[in-house]
Amino acid sequence: MKNITFKFELVDRLTKDGKYPIQLRITQNGKHKRKMSVLRVKSKKDFNKNASQDNWIRPSEPNHKKWNQILSDELANVKTLYKEELNKGGVTASKLIEKINSKYQDYSFLQIIKDRGKQLELEGGIRNVRKYVGLANKLEIFLQSKGKKDLVVSEFDTKFLSEFRTYLFTLRNVKHQDKSLHPNTIAGIMNTLKAVVNHTINTLKYMKMDENPFIGTKYCSEIDTQRNQLSESEITLLENNKLEPYSLQWHCCNFFLFSLYMGGIRAGDLIQMKWCHIKDGNRLNFQSEKTSKWYNLEIHSLPNKILKFYSNEEMQPLDYIFPFLKNNTTFHHVTNNDEKKTLKLEVNKKRLRTVNNKNSLINKYLKKVRTNCGIETEFTCHISRHSFGRKAKDNNVDSLHLKTIYQHSSIRETDRYMGGFPSCETDKILAGLFDKSYNKKNILCKFILGLDEERLDKLIDFVQKEIASPEPFESHQLSMLKMNF
Hints:
The chain is mainly α. The protein folds into four domains: 102 residues, no CATH class; 103 residues; 187 residues, Orthogonal Bundle (hpI Integrase, Chain A); 60 residues, no CATH class. The chain is 51% helix and 8% strand. The strands form two sheets. A three-stranded antiparallel beta sheet has the order 1-2-3. A three-stranded antiparallel beta sheet has the order 4-5-6, with no helix packed on it. Helix 8 packs parallel to helix 13, helix 14 packs across helix 15 and helix 16 packs across helix 17. The chain is elongated. The termini are far apart.
């Protein structure tokens, strides 16, 4: 029986997130068995298959030192297990894989969550790290309430999953201590947990597919919620504001309106928007940080009017459009997601903290804008997205177009999102069924909308003459009107 050899290799196919997994090849007698590693690279050039001295990840990857250490530790653990089995007698590659997998049946599930959070952080996915930290903290407290310090993979079953979800409903809302966690917040936590389970099954291979406790369950279902949005009259109040020019309230009002006019651009993206994102003079071309999808939108007259307040001869392509971030920060040069991921970890963390703080600042001043403009509805930056959705629904904008503007992944997601807004068409149907006068007005409106410009001018002249008469319109007069026009 020949000795077993080990070598890391790159899987020649992309995962759903557009990266190449690294796997450990275990060879004996010319036959190979493979175990998936925890790491993935975004480019084939980042991996050195002929590496020496544990340098599998090339310096082209910013995290190459830490990642090489992770691979080195992983290989050392497998070799230690191999020696242990070898001392007991013979060992085959297949048996070694079984031993590796069985060993991890008692691996800490809590640690898997923490490790996954750290991995995402190293890969530049800092936005999602808080979800994993929060999940680990809640799970840790839940285990303590049951008199346990940890949870191993083999213990994570449907019974435990159900008990943990029930426990989440007993937790208090951090911002509103008189309330419990919202069902959609709980659904988000369960979705993160589901992602960890999929990672445990598909990447770590510590759990089999048929052991997935989420199969056949609906632990992650969200409920429909009432979405605040500004009415047409409230938007008009914002547009006609008497705020002091170039004051912070004035800037925040412009920020909100620009987002609204451009389809509800997310606050984080708009805070980091630069002049270089404006192409060909009138197109906004930028990458969404949340979805990584690219926007390419025409800047029509209303948002363009706002841009003119901020443009000047001294502005540079990398300058921020809205004056919430300084142009001399350590992250000032980045313009898209790939460039953001090349930042040092601490710099990237600082960037996100700064953007989140500015978002909170804008929301704080929008409360003052609301008061000064006499607006009844409470609103934040995100309400621009809702307000755009309501206006689009009222104007019967096609869901396919809205999907592109919102950068949703599916029509179903767009329809679900738009379902949270009432429609003026619904109002018309309800009124038209019972209110005869409303129905007549609706018929007349449709008739008028079908007229060309010449016939519309004749109709206006005719109506003006009739209004001068004290006699109201009769049904036969309306029939004659249709015949004449």
